[in-house]
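Reading a protein record of the kind used here takes only a little practice. To see the layout at work, look at the sequence and tokens printed below.
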Amino acid sequence: MEPQLAQEQVKFWQEPTLQGLELLRARYITHSFSRHTHEGYAIGVIEAGVEAFTYRGSAYWAPAGSLVMIHPGEVHTGHAGIPSGWVYRMLYPEVALVQQVAQELSPAIAAAPFFPQPVIQDPPLAAQFCRLHQVLEQSPCQLERESGFWWMVAQLIQRHGELRSHSPTPPAANGRLVSQLQIYLQEHHSENIALEHLAQIADLPPLKLLRLFRRVTGLPPHAYLIQVRVHEAKRRLATGQPIAAVAVETGFADQSHLHRHFKRLVGVTPGQYAQATAGSIRA
């Protein structure tokens, strides 16, 4: 019988001994993640229910017991695959951390590992992941936490990864131009940027700019800008800055505007994130 997921619950925290590894344990029913990307990997296990998501141009359903693997820079979504929602545990390791494990397995290969399947059926490894997640949540022993992470990631790479170069987007003739636009949006994220202004910078008609930006990044410029603002808000919240001030300084209209977009991209509220990262300067 499908478990009854009565209400949404979420816990977010960091593991400072593993380069500020971010962790999430959540139960979602109506919550839906907007199209977004991660700078690092997103690795998780579905404990109950079904998560549905789009990734690399296809739709996927991850039932209970599934491992889920999302690559850095890949646009994806996330929502309930059944009315009762889903329960999962997630890790968000930096690329450099996963790459460090991979290089110990294959010292001659410098590329970060690539995982061809976003939904993996491997019950023993899924159980190992859940045990690791619980250790990272509960164990006071640093050696246990670090050892468990390294061992689990090594097993994941050996059993389901490929040590080869991977680009999240296909090569594009105008990739350099889009990169310049991304840098501009990053540097001016707090401003109310007009499409016409971006078109002038790119020396392209507005519609052609929109098509090019979406083709290269997987996101329209405004969605990319929101993601940049949320990332900057994370950095500021981790330093203890007040939420209301962070909202204004990162380009959001007000605190509720930040709250709405932050929750849709990160899965927790700005307040929950600030509490979990208190005393950290990393985001």
About this structure: The first helix runs from residue 95 to 105.
